[in-house]
Amino acid sequence: MNPKNMVLSSRVVESLAFILLWLVLHSSFCHGVQSDIDCLKSIKDSLEDQFNYLNSSWNFNNNTEGFICKFTGVECWHPDESKVLNIKLADMGLKGQFPIGIQNCTSLTGLDLSNNKFYGSIPENISRMIPFVTTLDLSSNNFSGSIPKLLSNCTYLNVLKLDHNRFTGQIPLELGQLSRIKEFSAANNLLTGQVPKFQFAITAQSYANNPGLCGEILDPCEETPKKNRTVIIVASAVGGVTFAALAVGVALAFFFRRVAVRKKEDDPEGNKWARSLKGTKAIKAS
User: Where does the UniProt annotation place the signal sequence (predicted)?
Assistant: First the structure.
């Protein structure tokens, strides 16, 4: 092949490869931008906005690049790029459940819903919804139910605030695996049981006003000694067997008594006739 033709063919291939790569990246970018717009639309539609913070600012009729970055409470990675970095909706009087549509903000690193009227439980798969979040503030709401164990999969978390809600059950011990955590609070809930062992210094104030938290920097948890637990298990087993034996004995006694009564009813004179007959035969034989 002519060297000039080879060079030309090589340049054509390189050009086509560049165009293909550009198309792939552009497609991904457009999809990302649209998903973030859908994210915010879903959040707005799912919440009661009694003070019109969102209704007055979140206008989706504008299609210019980066228009969502001017929304109240929204911060973007770049002012001219509709890619959400943080959502800060604190103190807005918003009411509703945890916004599921948040999962469409695929590059979100911060979420602040504090001091509102959110209620219900936190989704179990929250770590899949906001995998890159570094700050999560859900404090001062009406969230309830248990704290999801899978929060421990949000490995970039630096700040986790869950205080002043109505969470119940135990704080997942798995949260102690969050190596980047620097601030944690679960005070003023309805939590009980052993608290996690974090890798940073945490104060008792982070657990204040819960009915039954214990362990680590709090009072020791009351545990039944292993020996006592064994005794209790054995005693329970023996008690169960004894009760079963007594039940069987009572049942058998009742059964035989019923059989005896029935026989007596069938032969009210008992065996007197048989004894009389035997006596008569005895007289004849003599």
Answer: 1-35
